[in-house]
């Protein structure tokens, strides 16, 4: 049997219990067609890059599947008919990942790292508002409209001499 990683996006107005019910429904489809579902990760409600069917957010869910292609095709067919599933993507893999996925690792690392204020600036020292000094350049003057460019001259070739 082939190994797959399957991610689907469910509508934002569903509850977490409804998303879990969708997962159970699709697990049943895979099991009925001779496959099995390994790990299931709920990545939670995340913002979408662009609106999909008038939704700005979606519940992301990852499933590791071990099933024949017919079982996968049936599950994808049912997902395509469901109004609750916005998008799905299935990738064939050589072996399932052990441990949490990259999305879950990122969340765990973020909590261990702390906030932005905890970062070490190395040999640069603390940052202050006045560190934008340009050194040898004189300050800009915006009050002089003529500036270094000189006076404006009218365009040639326009009818009536209009600019």
**Count of DSSP-assigned helices:** 3
**Total E-strand runs:** 4
Query: Which strand order spans the largest sheet, edge to edge or round the barrel?
Result: 2-3-1-4
Low-confidence runs of at least 5 consecutive residues: none
How much is the average pLDDT?
82
Q: Strand count, sense and closure of the main sheet?
A: 4 strands, antiparallel
Helicity, in percent?
25-40%
Structural class: alpha+beta
Q: Could you tell me the radius of gyration in angstroms?
A: 29 Å
What sequence of helices (H) and strands (E) makes up the elements?
Answer: EHEEHEH
* Overall form: elongated
The portion of residues forming beta strands comes to 25-35%
Pfam families: Ribosomal_S6 (PF01250)
Function: Binds together with bS18 to 16S ribosomal RNA.
InterPro entries: Ribosomal_bS6, Ribosomal_bS6_sf, Ribosomal_S6_plastid/chlpt, Transl_elong_EF1B/ribsomal_bS6
Region (Disordered): 97-163
